Amino acid sequence: MNWPAIRAVMAKDLTAVRRSKAVVLPMLLVPFLLLVVLPLVIGIAARSQDQFDLSRFLDNIPGDLARPILALPQREQLIVLVNGYLLAPLFLIVPLMVSAVLAADAFAGEKERKTLESLLHLPMADRDLFVAKLLTAYVPALLVSWIGFLCFAIVSNTVAWPVMHRIFIPTRLWGVMIFWVAPAVAALGLSVMVRVSARARTSQEANQLGGAVILPLIFLAVGQATGLLLVDIKIAIFIGGLVWAVALLLCARGARRFTRDQLATRL
Amino acid sequence: MSAVIEARGLTRSFATGVALDDLTIDVQPGEVLALLGPNGAGKTTTVRLLNGVLKPDRGEARVLGLDPTTHGDEIRRRTGVLTENAGLDERLTARENLLFAARIRGLARPKAKERVDELLGRFGMFDRANDQVQGFSTGQRKRLALARALLHDPEVLFLDEPTSGLDPAATRDVVELIGSLAAEHGRTVVVCTHFLGEAGRLAHRMAVLHRGRLQAFGRPDELAAALWDGLEADVDLGAPIDDRILALVRSVGGVVAATPSPEGVHLRVRDREALAGVVATIVGREVPVYGAVPRTPTLEDVYFAIEAGFT
Lengths: 267, 311
Prior knowledge:
heterodimer, A: mainly alpha, 12 helices, B: four-stranded antiparallel β-sheet
């Protein structure tokens, strides 16, 4: 592996992305709404409502999840249910979206900007180029997720302090989500989108194909699985492992099939 | 000395058809080769195949003694390519674009900065070094892309339409620069173009492609000799030649054709001696001759004559 060249491609792409408001703003808006605004609203709601009866709702969710929440004082139940549990699977949108948006741009964006040919004429092995483009999408997806989670934890704990009187986030479930499942979901999203990007002519085409067909299927599968994530930490770890396995398999296949010739043929 | 570039039977097809069909050429060290042909002739495909960006369906090539299908990276390390679209990232500055290429080419950071500044100065771009490329004119982009192609002091330069979109002054600058790279620095240069004027001034040999097939390959004068019998000349008499003298001219040995022109007579003769015989005949009849210059066919004459054969 030629790591200096890989780092050079990553640095170039990320500098370019940073300067593109059209890419950065939508990429940060969803995490902001999900990880800052939502816990803020929930915290404020919990503070203003003395009696927030969740028993009917909690009756409909698995007993293993409901029991620890029902054991809490009623004022704490809303905050712990939403911020501690229900938001955790939703949080997976963040790494999936960020990695997908950046991966869609990986090759299709280069084609669109007519920079792909000059890139292909540089002395960089096909596999290094593929890895560089994967990491260009993956590293920011993880960073946005982790920084987003840090903001979420600060906002949740601060706003809920008058009710909770303790730091309640991160929970063990959040830990598994952040460090195991989210990186796996990001890897799955980009392993699909990089291949879509190599075939599409423009990043818009790649986004449409990925956004309209492939990512909803992934999200549906992950969404179904995350119902299970809430039940038990062991199951959450297993589901994460499964997503990792599929993502790594797709990445490895993509790397094997990825060639300059294939890209140059579509120039 | 062995050829820097050799291609034997190079063939490549795409879904749309055959892009290059059985190309066999060679380029010698320090030579400037013009790859000529209309759009879609196969020029860019040739450059991509020789740099290992595309793989051939059939045939083989050697660039600097290396096979592009197996040693593409090594070849690309030693060649510089100016693509038809400058291929610069518009969101980066001029300096960032060059530093990126320098880092991929393995130049250490201090050396890269020094080299980038040197080239920005040489190409008159130093004052725009920290501006994003999106505000640059076509000429500025081309100069920057050319600087990028020269970053690592390549042994072979491939220039795909180096002057397209440039104004006449910028075209002249680029042509002079390419000429000096070959003449003073001994670099081998392959220029793909459909603008014949620049190639004519630069090229030692020309390869004419049409729909992927090589139509002609050689020095312009060799190709002219193959295309035309003898040489052409205009004899300046200050007035159209009269019929009696014209008949005498046509009877001179070695004259293939003689036609009146507004200033005298236009000739096709077998060799320079025949032209001297014509001048002696006219002067012998006490008609003044103000000039008689054999005209060497230009690259344009040769190209259009070849093109006339395939249209």
